[in-house]
TrEMBL record:
The organism's taxonomic lineage, starting at the top: Bacteria, Pseudomonadati, Bacteroidota, Flavobacteriia, Flavobacteriales
Domain VOC: 2-130
Pfam annotation, one family: Glyoxalase
Organism field: Salegentibacter chungangensis
UniProt-recorded name of the protein: VOC family protein
Protein origin, superkingdom: Bacteria
Amino acid sequence: MKVTLISIPVRDQEKALRFYTEKLGFIKKKDEPLGGGNRWLTVVSKDWQDGPELLLEPAPNHFKPSKVYQDALLEAGIPWTQFDVQDVSSEYDRLTKLGVEFSMKPTEMGTVKVAVFNDTCGNNIQLVEEL
């Protein structure tokens, strides 16, 4: 058994696609229409194209409990998920220059360094570097 797909709720799939590809550097893997303006839209790491896909899921637009949960996590400052990076400080600098807003600057916490940013689609995302 292995993980092949993880979904993240987004309120606007096109905006999410732009953010995840143009700012974070992911690449689009699948883009299939589902009807009603929704798409099966996934991105993957450019450095691990056969790795897990990230589904940009429009659930908050159609399923109220998803929106409530997403809003609660965002308000509490809790990340929806995390992405591992080689160097959190370098990614922080790169993303800040691209206009990405961070709620937590690079901070050492025991054996990791973390930073948290807003993906502009309703989620906090945590970057993690193992020290």
